[in-house]
Amino acid sequence: MARLVYAAAALAFSCAAAQKPSVVDAVDRSERDRSKDVHRKPVQMLAFFGVASGMRVGELGAGGGYSTELFARAVGPEGAVFAQDTPNWDGPELTKAWQDRLARPAMKNTAHFMRQWDDPFPAEVKDLDAVYSVAVYHDAVAEKGDISKMNRAVFAALKPGGVYAIIDNSARAGSGATDAEPLHRIDEQLVRDEVQRAGFELVAQDDFLRNRSDGRDWNADPSVNKAHTQDRFALKFIKR
Question: What totals of helices (H) and strands (E) does the chain contain, helices first?
Answer without folding.
Answer: 9, 7
